[in-house]
């Protein structure tokens, strides 16, 4: 089959790889119907050292179950299913706590002989725990929104949940990428009435407004901090959803968080240390977030998509054929596209 | 009157200062019955540059109201009252959120013409919001426990509340000082069944056991981390209550916190930056805590003391006359005493 492999910064190829086959009785084989490129794929696309080995790419996909191992129940051949961006057994003590990212029997798509999602098919380990059945047809117009359950919608939701977003909280979202816009949507869904979106790409912040943002702040750094404070009577917001991962974004978060508030980070941190000393201690600032346990939220968010209450799939603004996946990376890296769908 | 003044590291004096008098209609004058030295007083005792001005000391006291300003109701002359370690109006938007530490009309004991608690009397600003009436006599045996409401009990409680301690959480408390021991007591009170206390002073950890600690870990650093992990099946604990303030203590916290868990810091941080990068992000570690809004918790904790359910006053192991306050500092700095009461 064909699948996407990255060989280094800027070097993404679609190649022939071995067809997936059941290796363990807990596996399933899924034919991919829809996949996409993630903002986090752009970090290695910018910096991965060149390698002969290559890295299988993609951790967001939905598709049709073709075959299941002998120990898999709950999903069967012919089912349309979506996978979270990490696989997990959904039964261990961590999964029961809603922290599927810490599942000792789980793992990542791509490395260690596991397929990536940007390909024609995927062997899904721990299929029973990992896959969520979608009660729509393969040609449903809801597919892009349902694919967002793999990552960006659940990641935005995670940031809002961990920050304690509710109808009583004001919110700042830092970053107008697909995760930032999903965080806006998630905060709105949780009842927040005041949502300030920090972003400077008008087409994206316009979508942010549609998703529920009440104010747009294009300024960055000290200027951006001053603007958010001005909008909030000098106080800042209770919740800050940090959806970038750069140290400068986190530092903006420290500047705009209200005393007693929380910064919830879901942008993959590109730093090892942060300033977090006496001033933040005196302010009772909480720092939370992390890699989203998407699987924990999928059943909760699915009905809102099926009922049309939310349209997270609007973050996708382009679709390419699997063969053109390298163009998808380029378009997203150039900020020419927000988030690109891949149709194998 | 006599009051305690610090002129530099190791230089604490009891001197004559002007008698307090009502300056604002919201003031009250309180004659101090019982005060104490705080672990946080030991930071300037170790490092304050010598100064001619001196700094009025003490932020924990209870006493008898002698006089109230014209706008003070709720407390009156003759009442026995306790004060939290920061004064506040108890009516602003932050106080209503339970974050009295951010009260815009509040402040610290000691600086800016406000008396410290280690003296014969105190002018209490925002007296109506600040003072909590105690329904016991001036000679009650409960006074030391009631004095702990000023700071250490509420600070320990704050660390446990912010970390989400409940009957379902395992807990590590870092530090066997008065705040650490209070955190053990608070965690036990909130229902935690497994409480690991990291501390190496046997008389203190013995009291920790009485307060509810189930395990004592005297080791520090990597050894201490390994021991806590061993005690928790390799996982660490859901809650880590960091009651020291040193970077090394925080780093132990990172080592013993369970994936998805929280480190709640109430030790005043003696650092400006912390390691908090991808590893902690992948573990979904929350970092919370801060300066405790003691006033927010006093009414909630008071009944348990009055009913004898908790005895937080057991952290006091020595009593001195006001004139001997310098000895109290010395004894605590030398770890010869845990926490010292002052009787003016």
TrEMBL record, chains A, B:
The keyword Cytoplasm does not apply. Pfam families: ADH_N, ADH_zinc_N. Residues 178-303 form the Alcohol dehydrogenase-like C-terminal domain. Its cofactor is Zn(2+). Transmembrane segments: none annotated. GO terms for molecular function: metal ion binding. Keywords: Metal-binding, Zinc. The keyword Phosphoprotein does not apply. It comes from the Bacteria. InterPro entries: ADH-like_C, ADH-like_N, GroES-like_sf, NAD(P)-bd_dom_sf. Residues 25-135 form the Alcohol dehydrogenase-like N-terminal domain. PANTHER family: DEHYDROGENASE, ZINC-CONTAINING, PUTATIVE (AFU_ORTHOLOGUE AFUA_2G02810)-RELATED, ZINC-TYPE ALCOHOL DEHYDROGENASE-LIKE. This is IMP dehydrogenase.
């Amino acid at each position: 089959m064909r699948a996407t492999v990255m060989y280094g910064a800027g070097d993404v190829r679609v190649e022939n790889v071995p067809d997936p086959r059941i290796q363990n009785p807990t596996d399933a084989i899924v034919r991919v119907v829809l996949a996409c490129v993630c903002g986090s794929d752009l970090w290695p696309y910018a910096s991965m050292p060149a390698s002969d080995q290559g890295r299988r790419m993609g951790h967001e996909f939905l598709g049709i179950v073709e075959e299941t191992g002998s120990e898999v129940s709950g999903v069967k051949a012919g089912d349309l299913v979506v996978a979270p961006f990490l696989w997990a057994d959904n039964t261990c003590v961590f999964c029961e706590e809603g922290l599927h990212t810490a599942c000792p029997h789980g793992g990542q798509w791509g490395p260690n002989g596991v397929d990536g999602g940007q390909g024609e098919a995927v062997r899904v380990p721990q299929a029973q725990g990992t896959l969520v059945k979608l009660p729509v047809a393969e040609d449903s117009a809801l597919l892009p929104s349902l694919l967002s359950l793999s990552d960006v919608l659940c990641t935005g939701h995670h940031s809002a949940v961990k920050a304690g977003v509710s109808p009583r909280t004001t919110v700042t979202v830092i970053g107008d990428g697909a995760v930032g816009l999903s965080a806006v949507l998630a905060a709105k869904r949780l009842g927040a009435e005041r949502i300030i979106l920090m972003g400077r790409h008008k087409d994206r912040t316009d979508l942010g407004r549609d998703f529920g943002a009440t104010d747009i702040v294009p300024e960055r750094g000290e200027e951006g901090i001053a603007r958010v404070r001005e909008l909030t009577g000098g106080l800042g917001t209770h919740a800050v959803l940090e959806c970038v991962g750069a140290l400068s974004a986190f530092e903006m978060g420290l500047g705009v968080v209200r005393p007693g508030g929380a910064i919830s980070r879901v942008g993959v941190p590109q730093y090892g240390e942060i300033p977090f000393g006496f001033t933040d201690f005196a302010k009772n600032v909480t720092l939370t977030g992390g890699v989203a346990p998407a699987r924990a939220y999928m059943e909760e968010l699915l009905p809102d998509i099926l009922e049309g209450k939310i349209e997270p799939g609007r973050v996708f603004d382009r679709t390419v054929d699997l063969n053109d996946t390298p163009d998808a990376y380029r378009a997203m890296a150039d900020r020419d596209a927000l988030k690109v769908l891949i149709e194998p």
